[in-house]
Specification:
Layout lengths: L3 H6 L1 H11 L4 H33 L5 H38 L17 E6 L5 H4 L6 H8 L2 E2 H8 L5 E2 L2 H19 L3 E4 L3 E2 L1 H6 L11 E3 L4 E3 L4 H6 L5 E3 L5 E10 L18 E11 L4 H18 L4 E5 L11 E9 L4 E10 L3 H6 L2 E4 L2 E4 L1 E9 H11 L7 E2 L13 E2 L4
Parallel strand pairs: 4-9, 8-14
Antiparallel strand pairs: 1-11, 2-3, 5-7, 6-7, 9-10, 10-16, 11-12, 12-13, 13-16, 14-15, 17-18
């Protein structure tokens, strides 16, 4: 959540951020009013409590009519204090509920607009000209069948639509990608972690996923637990309700987990193959750092993502995501989109977000520096989302006979194998 002092001092900035996101601007004024009621009711309560304490000292010393009057005032004051306390509590709860609905302030450098108003920052690599090579590229579903790597038919039979099996070299390819990602992250100083996929409501709400993203979250009602859509959630909540020491920062974690998404609102989109599925595995980078260092760390996360895709020899572009397409916790987000030959377009494979102090305030994570305690900044970045990366590898590195040439950097994680070959 945002800093209420900033809201009071510069409400127009908050209104502009909400407007740029396409979110409710009236929420700002509702929150300002609730905050004022919280503060005024708190002041009123304090005044009445001080009077109550003063009377407590005067009554024993008073005599006769004066004492009777003081006792009468004590009785009426007790009722006023009780009412003021209830009013203060209600105003505080209202303000807290409203501030948790308010999205993070967008970075002034983020482009303004909707989903298609992103800014392309760079394009790396050149898509192959399959026509010049003399053959029509197969899509990842056909390649997956030829290689004995992907089985969507049995996935649907067993688990329903948007489900799949990775089989044979497909399963080995996932493990290779995960191990390669963890090796890169560990070399960069990240602590590898295998995180819970079931979390309490406080963790899911604290990271901001029960706002606009709530429709895509699976909830297990009997257990009162959520299935995570990204290991960002358990990584962010790892230090919930803690004070970290300044010399510990930055703390960098690389979490592996299965991820679950309902894909609500995507009816008819990407129904073929494994681009948009309900369950997938991912390696996620997560960083705790100071607010002053957050922008530089965001660029470092982006570079680590680029290093990984460069090693996989994939053509891609980097985009600066527009304000209306940001998640509620992100102040700024960069996506990397790999070229998918059979679709003739770039598709998102990784993203990295600077969430500034938004999540740390919600999760009550702070840093102590020179004796002072304050909120810190959190950032996240996907190093590898397995299914879409497999799609990009198969389609971009395929050969006319249906085989796939493995990028050199991935080969050591596949026992030195240089190609994936069709099964007989």
């Amino acid at each position: 959540m945002i800093d209420l002092r900033l809201l009071r001092e510069d409400p127009d900035r908050v209104r502009a951020s909400q407007r740029a996101r396409g979110e409710d601007v009236d929420l700002v004024d509702a929150l300002l009013a609730a905050d004022e009621r919280r503060r005024s009711s708190g002041s009123r309560f304090d005044e009445l409590r001080n009077e109550q304490k003063l009377l407590g000292k005067q009554v024993p010393k008073a005599q006769g009519e004066e004492k009777a009057a003081l006792l009468e005032r004590t009785k009426s004051l007790a009722a006023e204090v009780k009412a003021a306390d209830a009013e203060q509590t209600a105003a505080k709860e209202e303000a807290e509920a409203l501030v948790r609905r308010l999205a993070n302030l967008i970075d002034p450098d983020a482009p303004v607009g909707g989903e298609e108003d992103f800014v392309t920052l760079e394009e790396i690599g050149t898509p192959r000209d399959f026509a010049a090579e003399g053959f029509e590229p197969r899509d990842h579903v056909e390649l997956g069948q030829l290689l004995g790597a992907i089985d969507t038919e049995r996935g649907a039979k067993v688990a329903g639509s948007r489900s799949y099996y990775l089989t044979g070299v497909g399963a080995l390819l996932e493990l290779a990608l995960v191990n390669m990602a963890m090796a890169q992250a560990t070399a960069a100083g990240f602590v590898p972690m295998i995180t819970p996929t079931l979390v309490k409501p406080a963790a899911m709400d604290g990271t901001g996923f029960l706002g606009q993203a709530a429709e895509n979250v699976y909830f297990l009602e009997q257990e009162e637990r959520y299935l995570v859509g990204t290991s960002e959630v358990p990584l962010a909540a790892y230090h919930m309700d803690e004070i970290l020491e300044g010399e510990q920062l930055p703390l960098r974690y690389a979490g592996f987990s299965s991820c679950f998404r309902r894909e609500a609102g995507t009816y008819g989109k990407d129904t073929r193959g494994i681009i948009r599925v309900h369950q997938f595995d991912k390696v996620e980078m997560f960083v705790y750092t100071t607010p002053e260092e957050a922008q530089a760390e965001h660029r470092r996360l982006l570079q680590w993502e680029k290093d990984f895709l460069n090693a996989l020899e994939l053509p891609y572009r980097v985009i600066d995501v527009a304000s209306g397409d940001l998640g509620s916790s992100a102040a700024r987000k960069f996506d990397i989109e790999a070229w998918i030959p059979t679709q003739g377009k770039y598709r998102e494979v990784t993203s990295t977000s600077n969430t500034t102090e938004y999540q740390s305030r919600r999760l009550s994570i702070r840093v102590r520096e020179e004796g002072k305690v304050r909120p810190l900044a959190t950032l996240n970045g996907t190093l590898v989302a397995v299914p879409r990366t497999i799609v990009a590898i198969l389609e971009n590195h395929q050969q006319a006979d249906g085989s796939v040439v493995l990028p050199e950097a991935l080969r050591p994680y596949l026992g030195g194998r240089t190609t994936l070959d069709p099964v007989k």
